[in-house]
Amino acid sequence: MLNQSLYSYKDALDKEGIIFTFCGPISHDIVEGVGITLKSQMQESDVQRTTAMKVFAIFIEQVQNVINYSQERNDFDSDMGMGIIVVGEREGKYFIVGGNKMQNSKVAILESNLADLVAMNKDELKAFYKQKRHHNENDESKGAGLGFIEMARKASEPLTYSFEKIDNESSFFCIEAHI
Predict the structure, then answer these.
(1) What single-letter DSSP state applies at residue 139?
(2) What range does the domain containing 56 cover?
(3) Using CA atoms, how far apart are residues 61 and 151, in angstroms rounded to an integer?
(4) Bridge-partner residues for 86, per DSSP?
């Protein structure tokens, strides 16, 4: 039974253009190994170097988001955030999707910040990035939202995101970038 289910799952991923997916506890060590694999896989498929570097950079930002902000932590190592990262290619464009559980009390602020980013053009994003680098307004944030700004700057289309309410305490946050 499990073999059939797993094959069906893999087949569905292949049909969706999924190159890589990881679900579970994510740490800096995992990022290093997976990043090397992802980079080499993209180089083997003759992806332009600039495209590969953008995909890799957004992948790293997505992983950092899970590690730093996931509400769900690994039981054995609290520095490991629980989440999911997906990288794929469809119709000549790459997509990088990340998701993790977060507190409902933080959804409105994050949603507002992301809506502002999505509304900005490339020049506005560049100026906003410089401003945020020099003025860390949010002490709770480990990077003042710089990762999201960087993703928006590298993406070829506006970021898309969603929040799915799980219960009274938590929602599942998902963000997607295209290159």
Answers:
(1) T
(2) 2-178
(3) 7
(4) 21, 97
Residue 112, token pair as written in the block = 């507002």
144: CATH: 3.30.565.10
Residue with tokens 């700057």: 153
**DSSP characters over 85-126:** EEEEEETTEEEEEEEEEEEGGGHHHHHHHHHHHHT--HHHHH
pTM (global) more than 0.90: no
Model confidence at 45: pLDDT above 80: no
Burial of 119 (0-12, 13-18, 19+ CB in 10 A): exposed
Q: 131-140, pLDDT tens digit by residue?
A: 998 876 555 5
Q: What is the rounded CA–CA span in Å between residue 117 and residue 152? A: 7
Q: How many CB atoms lie within 10 A of CB 25?
A: 20
Pick the residue with more confidence: 164 or 38? 164
Cα–Cα distances in angstroms (integers) from residue 126 to residues 21, 112, 129, 150, 159, in the given order:
30, 19, 5, 9, 15
